[in-house]
Write a structure and sequence with these properties.
- By secondary structure, the chain is an alpha+beta fold.
- It has a single domain, classed as Lipocalin.
- It contains five helices and ten strands, in the order αααβααβββββββββ.
- The protein has a ten-stranded antiparallel sheet with strand order 4-3-2-1-10-9-8-7-6-5.
- Strand 5 and strand 6 form a beta hairpin.
- Helix 1 packs antiparallel against helix 2 and helix 4 runs antiparallel to helix 5.
- It is globular.
- InterPro entries: Calycin (IPR012674).
């Protein structure tokens, strides 16, 4: 069974996509999911690891929908990224101790903050191709602002909505995305939803280790 065909995919279809159409405002679905998901513990045996890209569905159409130029579209859609997902404990030197990295906004009301700071962790996702490497480091449930590779800012919130389902909410001035990563023993599937157009794309990855 491939990732996306299991119970997590059923949840993805019923819950996430339902929230996409029923949200009262731009951030409404984020609040709703955070409320439901704040006590979920990830299944690290499935989430962590190295994943190799194998195929896409509708990905070039997605790149067009967010305004990626023709030349860059060819480079991106023709690449085969390797993605590494790591868990960084609080006492690891990679841990980001700068609290200014995170925004003080309404999402904080829904975060199940650890009783002891030493129990905190962050996740680091590194995506590498022959052209470049991109690193994203975050603490689930906390919103942070970053400068994207297109030179514009975005606000991002990651949250586990099931032990093997990680959802990212990305809000930019030009568009908003919901990015859903489903993990299993064989690999992962990333579903990208353009909130402005409703267009969906998928990227499939096999597990390397």
């Amino acid at each position: 069974m491939s990732p996306g065909d299991d119970i997590s995919s059923v949840w993805l279809t019923i819950q996430v996509l339902e929230n996409e159409t029923m949200a009262d405002d731009q951030h409404g679905e984020t609040k709703e999911v955070l409320q439901k998901a704040k006590k979920i513990d990830p299944d690290w045996s499935l989430v962590l690891g190295e994943f190799k890209h194998v195929r896409d569905e509708n990905f070039e159409a997605f790149l067009i929908s967010v305004g990626v130029p023709y030349f860059l579209r060819g480079l991106i859609s023709g690449s085969t990224p390797t993605v590494v997902v790591e868990r960084i404990p609080y006492d690891d030197y990679y841990y980001d101790h700068d609290i200014k990295h995170y925004l003080d906004d309404e999402y904080m009301d829904f975060v199940d903050v650890e009783a002891k700071e030493t129990e905190a962790y962050q996740i680091m996702i590194t995506s590498s191709t022959f052209l470049s490497s991109h690193l994203e480091q975050f603490r689930p449930g906390y919103t942070f602002e970053k400068m994207d590779r297109d030179g514009t800012k975005s606000q991002n919130t990651y949250v586990f909505v099931a032990p093997s389902v990680l959802v990212q909410y990305k809000h930019k001035a030009a568009y908003s995305l919901t990015i859903i990563r489903v993990f299993d023993e064989e690999g992962s599937v990333t579903t990208i939803i353009n909130k402005n157009t409703g267009l969906q794309a998928k990227r499939f990855f096999d597990r390397v280790n």
